[in-house]
Amino acid sequence: MVYTVTANVSAIRRHLTAIILVAIMILVGALAGPRLLLGPQVSVEAVVRQDFVQTVVASGRVETPHRVEVGVQITGAVRLVPVREGDVVAAGATLIEL
Fold this sequence. Notes:
Number of strands: 0
């Protein structure tokens, strides 16, 4: 059997390319594998019990979500107003007595 130099160089190049590709895949797997298997690293802080103080300074105006105006068509003197402005009342509750 006669071996030629060009045949050996060609075979070595094919094997060398395959070896380099396998080495690159092993390197990528070694670098990315733990991150894929274990998930991302997150920082951990110890829980400490303490007072929570927060100050907010803002400017603006306050608006009511609903405004109701009550009117009557009879005359009389108001005897009693059992609710104050801003109170929550149920449907059918007495708002004013004449």
